[in-house]
Amino acid sequence: MKILTVYATKYGSTETVAQWINDRFLIGGHDARCMNVAENPECGGFDMVLLGSGIYSHKFLSEMEQYIASNIDALMLSKTALFGVAMRTETFFRRGNAYGGTVMLERYGAMLGQRCIVGRILGGEMVFERLTDTDKHRLEKFYHSIALSEAEQATRRHPRTFLNKRQCWDFAEEIIDCAGK
Ligand SMILES: Cc1cc2nc3c(=O)[nH]c(=O)nc-3n(C[C@H](O)[C@H](O)[C@H](O)COP(=O)(O)O)c2cc1C
């Protein structure tokens, strides 16, 4: 298969994930390439286009949302798959609503339709010290809003990684498997 992976990242973890997935496609003998959304890659003529982004406030980065919207006609001609990279990968339920996990992919799946065959949220990474002041401030407001204790906040400020190559390779295998059905 001819496969294009397009990723959006702010701090680099989604690039790492995209490269691991792309490596697994290459190992499987596929004609695969991986590009940053900032390069605005041409997405026509592929059998599969995989679209992934770091997750910010339960959504893809706006660059990826805009890329999907502006290339929707070309994307709907091939099979597509989605991934988000986040610190919390599972769905949780609060006050009548489900948040997080693959629920976050539904809005993009609704745009891409039935040929969008599979999606996952994969583990990311966060090094608080490396964030911009604006992002540090956003997170501090968020921790306050969910009433995290000082101790829990300190844990979150400690460098944390959930990057997992095996999880990425499993996802690459799932994509190939689903695309063949
Ligand atoms: C301002 C901000 C908001 C975030 N929002 C979420 C979120 O809603 N859910 C989540 O699980 N992780 C969230 N994260 C963590 C990122 O998704 C995680 O660090 C991811 O690996 C970042 O990807 P990138 O390095 O490719 O930019 C947030 C991080 C920041 C700095």
Q: What is the H-and-E element order?
A: EHEEEHHEEEHEEHHEH
- The CATH level-2 architecture of the largest domain is identified as 3-Layer(aba) Sandwich
Q: How many separate domains?
A: 2
How many beta-strand runs? 10
Radius of gyration, CA atoms, in whole angstroms: 17 Å
> How helix-rich are the residues, as a percent range?
25-40%
The proportion of strand residues reads 25-35%
Stretches where pLDDT is under 50 for at least 5 consecutive residues are none
Describe the structure.
The chain is globular and about 50 Å long. It folds into 2 domains: 2-124 and 162-179, 3-Layer(aba) Sandwich (Rossmann fold); 127-159. The strands form 3 sheets. Strands 1, 2, 3, 4, 5 and 8 form a 6-stranded mixed β-sheet that branches. It has a two-stranded antiparallel sheet with strand order 6-7. It has helices at residues 13-27, 62-70, 72-75, 106-112, 133-145, 150-157, 165-179; strands spanning 2-8, 31-36, 48-56, 59-60, 79-86, 92-94, 97-99, 116-123, 125-126, 160-161. It is an alpha/beta fold and 181 residues long. The two termini are 13 Å apart. The longest helix has 15 residues, at 13-27. Helix 1 crosses helix 7 (165-179). It has 7 helices and 10 strands. The mean pLDDT is 96. Flavin mononucleotide is lined by residues 9-14, 54-58, 85-88, 124-126, 131, 135, 138-139.
